[in-house]
Write a structure and sequence with these properties.
It comes from Vibrio brasiliensis LMG 20546. The chain crosses the membrane at residues 12-29, 35-53, 65-88, 163-181, 216-237, 243-265, 277-294, 314-347. Belongs to the autoinducer-2 exporter (AI-2E) (TC 2.A.86) family. The chain has 15 helices and no strands. It has helices at residues 9-29, 33-56, 61-103, 106-111, 114-126, 134-161, 163-182, 184-194, 199-237, 242-252, 261-273, 277-302, 311-325, 329-350, 352-360. The longest helix is centred in the N-terminal third of the chain and has 43 residues, at 61-103.
Length: 361
């Protein structure tokens, strides 16, 4: 008996209706899609812990899933609260120190440095800008230092004001995560049943999505944490607020091409111009050799082996995902590329005979 199914017009009507209904469902959940995707990603990362708890309580699936969500809450919420409080405290202290430094003539010392005098002279002579006066720059820096503290407080207030939205998204993610962990086997079985692929093709597709989702989180976010930690140590040793600037370097690491250099280059220049040449050299060497090597070595290592994606493809998947979806695109981009590569490999396998015949013709 042939396993082929005869496609009738009623089948096409059913497929079109199903696609339309699926699209309507997507529109319904689209405002919450990031929470759902993050729940899916975190369920993959949390599954080893969930399995360990499940072995201790094999007959209590609801309790096990609830305990896993509680563990995740402690892992995420409390460190974030600590870091946020420290950032506000160190950021405010930094803005006050900068204001004191400017008003007590610190910036004048920099403008009297021979290199700065020569650079300003070249700029005023050859570049088509208005004349740059050191006094105007000093005023701008003082204004920035004054507004930085108030802006930081304002940003903090806005973050606290948006806490309701954050908590809603977070608890929505936990709600979805609870069911993903509890009904993991049922969900995977349903996906396998619906996909019109062979078991080996399903394994390849699902395994690749899982691997890339994990590697995207590990490659992007763990690299940012590692760079922020290493950068914070370097900045602290050089005399800057370590936790504050380490956090800033962690966020800067998400910026393609520029990355953490956006933070440590101005800091090294400041140290050099204020006479701390040794610390300027130290910060530069530390940032290039230690912080930079983390990005060059850790990220490719964590994201290697993803559907045959080379370093160039990984770079563009991250860059394109960040541009198209924002920060969550660091996960979406690699997944989209990986699924495309897997589907291309399945296509190549399914049409291998035809493709080989085309090559011989």
């Amino acid at each position: 008996m042939s396993d082929k199914i005869k496609i009738t017009s009623s089948h096409w009507v059913l497929v079109i209706a199903l696609l339309a209904a699926a699209f309507a469902c997507f529109l319904l959940v689209e405002p919450y899609i990031n929470s759902i995707v993050m729940a899916f990603i975190i369920s993959l990362l949390m599954f080893p812990i969930h399995e360990w708890i499940e072995r201790k309580l094999p007959k209590h699936k609801n309790t096990v899933s609830l305990l896993s969500c509680i563990v995740l809450t402690f892992i995420i919420v409390f460190p974030l609260l600590f870091v946020f409080a420290a950032i506000v405290q160190q950021g405010s202290a930094f803005s006050q120190n900068v204001y004191q430094w400017v008003t007590h003539g610190g910036i004048q010392t920099i403008f009297e440095h021979p290199w700065v005098v020569k650079s300003l002279s070249l700029v005023n002579t050859y570049l088509p800008f208005d004349t740059i006066e050191p006094q105007e720059i000093a005023q701008k820096v003082a204004q920035f230092a004054t507004s930085f503290g108030s802006n930081l407080v304002g940003i903090s207030a806005k973050i606290l004001g948006d806490a309701t939205n954050f908590l809603m998204d977070f608890f929505l993610m936990l709600f979805v995560l609870f069911f993903l962990l509890r009904d993991h086997d049922k969900i995977i079985s349903a996906i396998r049943h619906i996909l019109p692929l062979s078991r080996s093709q399903e394994d390849k597709l699902l395994d690749e999505v899982e691997q890339v989702a994990k590697s995207a989180v590990m490659g992007s976010f763990l690299t940012a944490i590692a760079q922020g930690f290493a950068g914070g140590i370097g900045m602290w040793l050089a005399g800057f607020p370590g936790l504050f600037w380490g956090t800033m370097m962690g966020f800067a690491s998400f910026i393609p091409v520029v990355g953490t250099a956006l933070i440590w280059i101005p800091a090294a220049i400041y140290l050099f111009l204020t006479g701390d040449t040794t610390w300027a050299i130290f910060l530069t060497v530390w940032s290039v050799a230690v912080v930079g090597s983390i990005d060059n070595l850790l990220r490719p290592f964590l994201m290697q082996g993803s559907a045959g994606m080379n370093t160039l493809m990984i770079f563009f998947s991250l860059l394109g995902g960040l541009h198209l979806f924002g920060l969550i695109g660091l996960i979406y981009g690699p997944i989209i590329f990986a699924v495309t590569m897997v589907l291309f490999n399945i296509y190549e396998e399914e049409f291998q005979g035809f493709l080989d015949q085309q090559d011989r013709s």
